[in-house]
Amino acid sequence: MLNSIKSTIPSMEQRKSQINLLNFMEQEKLQQRRDSNSEFLFPDDNLLHKRRPSQADHSATQSEDDENFASFESYMVIEFDKSINRDALYWIIDKIRKKKSDGGAQLIIRSEPCLSDERGLIIHISATKLRLLEIADEIGFTKPTKNGLRSFNIGSLDDFIFDGMSMDDILTPADKQFVIKHALENIKARENERFLPGCAAVSLYHGQSIIHAAIQEELIVNMYSLHNKEFMKRLGTEWWNLRHLFKRQPIEKIRKYFGDGIAFYFSFVEYYTISLMIPTFLGLLQYTFGDGESSPFFFCSYVIWMTVFLEVWKRKQSVMAYKWGTLSLTNVELPRPEYYGKIGRDPITGKMTPQYPLYKTQIQVYFVSVPVIVLCTIGAIFLTLFTIYLEDYFILQYGLESYITMIPSIIQSILVAVLTVFYDRFATYLTVMENHRTQSQFERHRVNKLIVLEFVNNFFSLFYIAFIKQDMKNLQNQLLTQMIVLQFVQNAQEFLVPKFKQKYILWFCCGDVYKQLENDDKNDTKSIQSNYDDLNILQLEENDPRIKQNLRESAKDEYNTYDDYLELYIQFGYVSLFSSITPAAAFWALFNNFFEIRLDAYKLCKTFRRPFARRQKNIGAWHLAFEALACISIMSNCAILYLSPQVKELTEGMSTELKLILFVGLEHFLLLLAWIIHKAINDRPSSVRIALAKADYESKQALKRELVKNKIN
């Protein structure tokens, strides 16, 4: 998506000039640092630890950038297992800091002082500004210029600095984190590197991600980013603080810090919450003035709302993706770091990448995953039938009005919440075993499994009550009970469980170190003799606040948006599947979501680790999941209307065949109406379509000018 008026292909002289300028700036900062006699970054030679003699061949691995870097900002933290083989550790460290031309990532490393024999080596990773921009150039970020969006190119750096910007402003915090993670994951094994040094059992193949191989073999036990505490403090005052409960979220700031994926989620949940005001209002009218004659009208209104809600979101997310420079993300994705297979030439890109036979993935999908999912759904069905049987038994024993009869419904709701967590982990495990090539394929198959499992888990009991027992009063009670209990359990689970887990790890697994850091004065914390001095890595100072912060955040859970999207998916099902008979569901969803947005923001900033930034152009497979639920809701609500007592009274004089034809016709009419709305509302507004067409035209013109220029020269 190149929106430029100049050639997007800089000359070699221009590119060389920009790189020389960056190198000059780094050298200037280096000299300023030397003049200040900083011992932290430039210690005397006698303070530097010598490398292990057997590693002499590897280095020159103390990168020149490591010596020239004037200030250290931690972008990534890696914790190695304490029992890792020394040769393997040295090799991985050298790979991280070697120059790119030598097969390394050319990143900068600082180690934490050793505070306990129970923990392995902990390193913080950064990079020079020049290296960050070089990797961003390789990735192909789309960035704003004076004349619109353009693919970032370090050779035309001046174009990306405007309106008082500095070089630091080109990449956002999320971009920098993404760049470092990309550089680490793209440290690939060379053709002659068949196994990890010192670990003959850990085989490597040409092109495999070395960092991921180390994670799989548990040689690396943690890899994550630390939160920027100052940014979090500023963001919290206008985001998760309850004083801003009715204000819009700072989506742009969220995107710059957490990345596109997180920003899309919070934008979607805000849009969905605001949209819930319409069915809430309709539900209030239905509850106040509704009768049997007006039920079809309200149901048709719900159908129109669901369809318009999803179609307008498509337009909204395309506008955001264009503004953020991700709308043109190619469908030709690189393989996931976890993807494995024999190295071969990619038929599209021509690059050497892992190749895994598609039929093996399909065998795993259709002969392992599908049967297992079917067995899980059968188990969930039997569990649901048992709770329904238990409820009927209590009604016979204690009467319909007894509070004891509510116990099975509450138990069912709690079981649904617990099984939701299990299904999430289980679907992930099955999808990993399938070995999908790209991240989008992985997510689509994972979401498909979750949709099936959670649909049965959450909604089978409601369908049984509605269409087998045909007890509409019980359906209303069960749905609202299940919905409210589930939302309460999920919110408590999201907030309390990670907090208790973090405290447990800190006090019982890292107790001595944590107490030392908590109780000692800032300048009083003492390190012990390190076993990694021969790595020749400069250390953070013992009173560096990142050491204490790292210990706390290493005990936190990882965050992903799957659980939150799944929660919205289930809630949308409660609102839509039986909207014709449970108008209050939309109100409870709206009430919950006003607080859910702030709770999600708080847990993201305070309870979980900082998630890895992801580049996205939409909410992925979840949109299809919501659309599927909307289609099913049309059929389920038509069936509910057909069985409802009010409609039966209105159609008392009709034959059964005529009534069936009438409601099947209504169902087909509403499906047709939804399809018409889907086609009438374009996924991209005209402004975005025009901008894309203009960018494509100007890109072609720029390429033509460059070709003519090259011919002349």
Automatic annotation (TrEMBL):
InterPro entries noted in UniProt: Anoctamin, Anoctamin_TM
Claim: Membrane is one of the keywords in the record: yes
TM region(s), chain numbering: 262-289, 295-313, 365-390, 402-426, 447-467, 568-591, 619-643, 658-677
GO MF entries: chloride channel activity
Membrane topology listed for this record: Multi-pass membrane protein
Location(s) in or outside the cell: Membrane
Descriptive protein name: Anoctamin
Species the sequence originates in: Polypedilum vanderplanki
Lineage: Eukaryota, Metazoa, Ecdysozoa, Arthropoda, Hexapoda
